[in-house]
Design brief:
Length: 437
């Protein structure tokens, strides 16, 4: 049966009537109605093409034929829950294990990054028998109540900070308390976590986990200073806690040089728990928690079965396996290195011609351009960052919404990077001209 096609105005009217208004649309003043997609391109109902710079979920490209083929084939054969023995879940876990340090060898499959982070929180608290959690300022870890509680980005707008949650400074060397001129910003920021742990202990409380994105995204496309994670892990372990690396946004080769963003911190660092999500299923709901045998054993020992109806089902795992195949066969990590460097280089060159660009940072296809009204004061240029460029999908983030963030599908090409930077140049040139009028 063919689905009835609605005019854009009808779709928008029905959405306003039927869908909760807190579920917001991109470009709310004039929403784009997307009806199909391929690779890094989106198409509206009139066939207009848009360059997608924000869909890190569609990791290997929208509607990749290898992914849709794998999904359809498995769906036509079998889809059931994980209480039945099946090859796909173990084959997929084995493939994931090959990308991770040896100690991260036990996997729990779920359906979203929020589910993964909620389970990671449970694992940490069960293993340590402690409650308290340290998170980074401006962090976002998901939409469940447990995760809003550990997400300053959300809880500061709602009920506020819980007694068991403690917020460490964001290790932002451009705007934070320790900047790029600090001789060892990694240790300086890590020592703020040490100080926070001591403060928690003075209150008679104990740390279960330090919980952080490997590259804070909502916080502003932040690249953690070298040595930070290893030193934090040292302090957290000494306090009896575990280190949780949230790779929901950054995993699966986005940084190019490594499969996981936490690996940027060096071979001597390994988290105790890793969560993953968005890119895993290329748009299909698939997520996971990887942890150690010791932590998994403590979770099993509580005597309560963990069961997830859809997590790790045969279709999801078939899709996950296909995504891994495409990453390898199409050298998408290599592409992230090459195109990401080109995008960053072009943006840095643009910075030399536009004073409003205060900072360009990133690794692989995880790039941020921070806009400021004054380079000396580093005053956020929030209004300018909000400008919407026609036919290029870019969004902003950071505490002041002044950072243009780029997390495109991994098939993003050199010409796409050039097109984006040319468009930014055009906008900023026009903005500068208007400011002199």
């Amino acid at each position: 049966m063919e689905v009835e096609k609605l005019r854009k105005e009808e779709t928008l009217a029905m959405r306003k009537r039927l869908i909760g208004q807190s579920c917001r649309l991109f470009y709310s003043s004039d929403p784009v109605k997307i009806v199909r997609a391929r690779g890094q391109y989106l198409f509206d109902e009139n066939g207009m093409q848009y360059l997608d710079c924000i869909s890190n979920v569609h990791h290997v490209g929208h509607c990749h034929p290898s992914i849709t083929k794998a999904a359809a084939a498995q769906m036509d054969l079998l889809n059931t829950n994980t209480r039945f023995l099946h090859d796909n879940i173990v084959m997929y876990a084995d493939r994931l294990a090959a990308t991770l340090p040896d100690k991260l060898c036990v996997f729990y499959f779920v359906n979203s990054g929020s589910e993964a982070n909620d389970l990671a929180l449970r694992l940490a608290q069960q293993y340590t028998q402690h409650e308290d959690v340290i998170v980074l300022d401006h962090a976002y870890h998901g939409h469940l109540m447990s995760l809003i509680d550990i997400s300053p980005y959300k809880f500061r707008k709602l009920a506020g900070q819980k007694e068991w949650v403690h917020v460490a400074p964001l290790p932002d060397i451009y705007r934070g308390i320790y900047k790029e001129n600090n001789p060892d910003p990694g240790k300086a920021y890590a020592d703020t976590v040490k100080d926070l742990i001591e403060e928690v202990h003075r209150k008679g409380r104990k740390i279960s986990a330090f919980f952080a994105e490997s590259l804070p995204s909502v916080g502003g496309q932040i690249i953690l200073p070298q040595g930070y994670s290893a030193k934090v892990a040292e302090y957290v372990h000494a306090a009896g806690g575990v280190f949780v690396a949230d790779e929901v946004q950054t995993g699966f080769g986005r940084v190019g040089s490594h499969f996981w963003a936490f690996q940027l911190q060096g071979e001597d660092f390994c988290p105790d728990i890793v969560t993953m999500g968005k890119p895993m299923g290329n748009g299909h709901p698939l997520a996971c928690v990887a942890t150690t045998a010791e932590i998994a054993g403590a979770f099993t020992a509580n005597g309560v079965e963990y069961f997830n109806t859809f997590g790790g089902n045969p279709v999801s795992c078939a899709i996950g396996l296909a995504v891994l195949d495409v990453i390898e066969k199409e050298d998408l990590r290599g592409n992230a290195v090459r195109v990401g460097a080109h995008l960053k280089g072009l943006s840095t060159e643009l910075q030399s011609r536009h004073d409003i660009i205060g900072d360009v940072r990133g690794v692989g296809l995880f790039v941020g351009i921070e806009l400021v009204t004054n380079r000396e004061e580093r005053t956020p240029a929030t209004k300018t960052a909000a400008y919407e460029e026609y036919r290029i999908c870019v969004s902003t983030d950071g505490p002041w919404d002044n950072i243009l963030k780029f997390k495109p599908p991994m098939c993003f090409r050199m010409k796409d990077a050039e097109h984006v930077v040319q468009s930014i140049d055009h906008i900023l040139t026009g903005y500068r001209a208007c400011s002199f009028l």
